[in-house]
Amino acid sequence: MSGEVSSLPFGDAPTHASAIELYARKSAGFDERLAQTVELLKQAVAEHGAGLIQSTSLGAEDMVITDLIARHALPIDIATLDTGALHDETLALVPAIEARYGLKVEVFTPVQQAVIQFVKTNGERAMYESLDLRKACCAVRKLEPLSRMLAGRSAWITGLRREQSSNRAEVPFAEDDGKGRIKLNVLAAWSWADVWHYIAANDVPFNALHDQFMPSIGCAPCTRAIAVGEDFRAGRWWWEDEAAKECGLHATKDKTGVPA
After folding, report:
1. CB 3.0-4.6 Å disulfide test: which of 5, 39, 133, 254 passes with 126?
2. Four-CA torsion 237, 192, 190, 162, nearest 10 degrees
3. What are the tens digits of pLDDT across the range 145-179?
4. Residue 236's pLDDT is what?
5. Catalytic residue list contains 183
6. Which of the following is catalytic: 153, 247, 248, 249?
7. How many Cβ atoms sit within 10 Å of the Cβ of residue 210?
């Protein structure tokens, strides 16, 4: 599986277009997948209680999950990472969630001195210099604050889907995250069309950058729009040659069971 490719209906794409018009489609089995996701969330609450948290990237998938949490009045904490390098459009979703749903979003940021030292040592453009430096930047800005977000938790909810990339093609609904917690990928079986059908049907807030052909959005220096025919995650770390491009938040294992 090579990952979902963009489905833009024209070759010379404009700067802006409606992501809902481009992607939202109700496909066969959607109602069943939706019901399954709601049941998975309810089971997670029953099993983990206060040990459960949604770690939201504020991407389209995670906005769907947040809407489901609010819609079904599920007692699930919500938190996100502000890496210090996100787009303004991404950060704008935090107050949008709080205003729309009345839910508090806890924001975790990197240790400021660690960021300053990294930039001082490696420069503002370190992520473009080498894979090791890019991953080191991710470690400072994402992995360390994530460790604080998940401290004391027994399970966390993500928006990972099998269709997102070949590296995620076998994402299970639940897995051990390697640190004694359960990672719950409640949208694992959903398609991109499913995500946008739900957003359209329920008027879910979403990142304005999705209307600029950015289906997968990370830090601003590491995200670009995708072109016709490119993989779903082609706009992330596009200068790298690695087939499986991840930041480390969602470490995967190869066929031998060794973390990739």
Report:
1. 133
2. -30
3. 999 999 999 999 999 999 875 666 778 999 999 99
4. 87
5. no
6. 247
7. 23
